[in-house]
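Sample pair:
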Amino acid sequence: MSARALRWSGLLALGLVLTGCPGDDPEPVGDPVRFEVGTGVQFTALEEGAPLELFQGGQGSQHVFVSMRAWDLTEMEARVELALERTSDGERVSSRYKVDLRFEPGRAEGEPALLEGLLLVVPDVAQAVGREVRLKASFTSDLGQHGSDSHTGTLDWAANPFP
């Protein structure tokens, strides 16, 4: 193998290590913890059927603010997955969101851990605004604690789309 080919294969291997390999997701263990998806920069609970608000970002994209809370976590680090899908055909209308994040522990005994103000990008608003969508959220910690929740509602522009 030439020196150039060796360098390229080494860079390719390094790239695979840095981006992660398929199947490296943590495995859920036991019963799910109590978990709730909401919206807002700070957690706002959603009533079923309540609209989801779409905001314009400062760099030209548009997004839904997603927040979540979980009770009885013993580990704050988790793999978080978010998706926004049209209910009519199940088509994803958001960008892929699968990120390792850290919940903020509850401030007092019995209060939930929080993840707030996550930006779920909606690249093509023509495929989503004014339509019924399902916001799906889930997490799994390295220890296997897990939870999932969803909310169905119409996606509409926020009254003030520039937060």
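Confidence is low (pLDDT under 50) at residues 1-22.
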